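Hey team,

Filing this mostly as a record. A colleague (T.K.) asked me to run one chain through the structure pipeline before their review meeting, and I want the input and output archived in the tracker in case anyone asks later how it was produced. No errors, nothing strange. Just documentation.

Input sequence:
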Amino acid sequence: MTILGSGTSMGIPTLGCDCRVCVSSDPRDTRTRPSVSIRWDQHCVLIDTGPDFRQQALREGIRDIDAILYTHAHADHILGLDDLRPLSYRNKRKMPLYADEATATALERVFDYTFASDARYPNRARVEMHRINGAVEVCGLHFQPIPLLHGEMAVTGFRFGNIAYLTDMNDIPESSLPLLENLDIAVLDALRHTPHPSHSTLSESIEWANRLAPRVTYFTHMSHEILHAETETALPENMRLAYDGLQIPFEI
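Output structure:
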């Protein structure tokens, strides 16, 4: 799994900000909007396509995509959908997108010119929406949806193999915890140090990591309150900060 983007919705550097993180020379403090790619056996799946997807795909050499899974419909997770256009033309079949009902409906509304039954825009992305109803299988790999809470909003995390990607959340319902047993790797939302109504803070995410007890935890979706080098040195030994371009091996 490659961390395409490890930042929050405004990205780092944040426009108009001169804080020590936004002016940092450490490349790990430059964070694009949150997304990941998963590659195995010549296959590639994305989770979310944010506004920075085009630059992320160029940076990582992404040319062929088997499917995209969406966590929820906030702008920092969906607005790169239109950049799928040139990649979707590479295959005869339409590129499958997977999302829960609320997210799929929002995507179809925002990108009406792509999804509407009477759409005539000739260069629209060749994609096909699928509502998630249980586990999704893509080229032999199972993606288990994990219900999460993002404030009062229901969002979706995903477990695949021995890894779970749980971004944009501040609570994991008790009913979801059995789906997260025996993890080797967890990637968790950790927005900042100060409280937020819909994101887990770093200290709260450390508590979640201790409760889920994976072998290694990576924190993502970080704001400019989090200075990489300083913060990581203070973390427990089995917890780390993600950064753009980080590659995390996992087992199917």
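Quick notes for T.K.: The longest strand covers residues 141-150. The mean pLDDT is 97.
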